[in-house]
Amino acid sequence: MKVSGIGRVIFWGGGNLWIGIAVAPVDLHAHHAIQLAVGFDGPVEFRLDAGVPWSRYEHGALVRPGAPHEFRAPGRRIANILLEPESQLGRALLERFEGGPIMALDANVDDLAGAYDQGVDDEVLAEKALAFISGLAGSAPPRHPADPRILQAMDWIGRHLDQPMSLADVAAVANLSEGRLRHLFVEQTGIGFRPFVLWARLNRALEMGFGGYSWTEAAHAANFADSAHLTRTCRRMYGLTPTSIRIDTTAQLQQQIA
Asked: How far apart, in whole angstroms, are the C-alpha atoms of residue 195 and residue 236?
């Protein structure tokens, strides 16, 4: 079985952290989140298509939402942080790093790397990841914050991922017509309503699966048809399968790569 990485996967409201040792390259994929990728002891590498050369990012990279990409950093300690672009922090980050689909960062990750090497608990690692994002985004609020009606809709979606939902359901919550919600959702998030719901379901299932539930239980709890549907969605949006990540909460993982 292909192993993509060994380490820890930590979720919090609006983001997640994949941290540990990168093993196999991550296949071409695209997702809704802002991705911040940093290497603790070497560069990370990306490419936008399988037919083009890899680009090295010595101090990390930011991948904009929706940008297709492959990733690799074989044998290196790395962190991939994913953040909702609709959040205030996400909006500020995108405004500060305007440009192409993948942009180089000049980031100091010593604090996050040190916390990981010390084996701190998930809550502390999440705090370190958020502090890292905040440092990149700066202290200024975003010039164009997300529409509160869309944030309200997203909050409702997040609380009802275990059940079927329709555009009409969410439009009623946001006090909008279905047509207006459909248009505003794409305008504000860059993604359609149904793809966003699928993205949210995927992350709920991954949080549960990496948290100790079976992948079948996690799939059903997030309203996937079965674990195979979950796996296909994860491969398309993350470039890997859930079972290709080996969870290990210890920091000394190098000897497990062979």
From this structure: 12
